Amino acid sequence: MENERVLLKQFGRHLVELRRRHVISQERLALESGVSRSYMSGIERGVRNISLTKICELANALGVPPATLVQFGDSKNGSKPP
């Protein structure tokens, strides 16, 4: 359970980083990927566990391959996700 929380938070931070890098607002990304802005906020805060389908939709809205969203680690210590 703890590993899941850590993974969701890492995913959320990574998504925020990618979204900002692509200069897309949270609201626009939510709209383009078919979720509410409040749900998007939950994803970015690491409190929502989203489906593979939704990961693909987020990637499409960002214009990146889906693998880009799941290739991350803890940037503070260089570790891989659990």
Question: Which SSEs are present, and which pair or pack?
Answer:
Layout: H1 2-21, H2 26-33, H3 37-45, H4 52-62, H5 66-70
Low-confidence stretches: 75-82
Averaged pLDDT: 89
Shape, principal axes of CA atoms: globular
How many DSSP-defined strands? 0
Order of helices and strands: HHHHH
Give a structural overview.
- The chain has 82 residues and is mainly alpha-helical.
- It has one domain (2-70): 434 Repressor (Amino-terminal Domain) (Orthogonal Bundle).
- The chain contains five helices and no strands.
- The protein has helices spanning 2-21, 26-33, 37-45, 52-62, 66-70.
- Helix 1 packs across helix 3, helix 2 crosses helix 3 and helix 2 (26-33) packs across helix 4 (52-62).
- The protein is globular.
Core attributes:
5 helices; mainly alpha; 82 residues; disordered C terminus; 434 Repressor (Amino-terminal Domain); single chain
